[in-house]
Amino acid sequence: MTVDTATLSHTGGRRSNQDSFGYEANQVKGCWVVADGLGGHAGGETASRMAVDSVLSRFRQETDISPNSIESCLQIAHQAIQVKAAAEYELAAMRTTLVVLAWTGKQAVWGHVGDSRLYWFRQGKIFHQTKDHSVPQMLVDAGKLDPLQIRGHEDQNRLTRAVGQAGALKTSVLPEALALQPGDAALLCSDGIWTYVLEAELEADWARAASATEYLALLERRVLERAEPEHDNYTAIAVRFPGE
Fold first, then answer.
1. Quick one: 5 exposed, middle or buried, by C-beta within 10 A (0-12, 13-18, 19+)?
2. Domain carrying residue 156
3. Fewer beta carbons within 10 angstroms: which end of the chain, N or C?
4. Looking at residue 20, which CATH number applies to its domain?
5. Using one digit for the tens of pLDDT, what is the confidence trace for 22-62?
């Protein structure tokens, strides 16, 4: 069973890239991770890289892929960043978003913190998407804002949760592993992608793309056509599972 994976990460209009990503996959299991760092140039880069590395290191030790194992990955990354921030003054404010997908051949499970998103596609449509931990998402939940108005909202970047924040971390993890169906696909991305690409377009591009690599090329084209000159870093991982 072969999983088609493609990755994309670019500085955009910024001087440095504070996004990080990574994955490990074989014919038995896989783990895909995207993080968007916060807290200044050095801090953001350090936090996002630490988060990705911590998750993949923990994943290698896991024999069972479950909501509990995803929760463990997120919490271990949180603790590692807190320890590093406490030890180094220049990194004291570092934090990061984090979204993690794990797969075992027959089922998948995911979790996240912040506003890096996971979209799950089934039969060409968005079957599930994560909900941001942000002020605009709170307004959506309260019925005061339409979900499409999150993009470009004045408080879009105000997060309510981040890995490495002070105190305990509350995560969002899929309650039960999802049984895969033929042709399922996933997109993990930072806000540098989803800010410029609507959900209907995410679906349309999967219908057009012959591979995960082609899919990300279509998304990147949309970002570059629409983004302002000094736009944010953008990072994505596209994963397409076997059709049979």
1. middle
2. 4-240
3. C
4. 3.60.40.10
5. 999 988 899 999 999 998 778 999 999 999 999 999 999 88
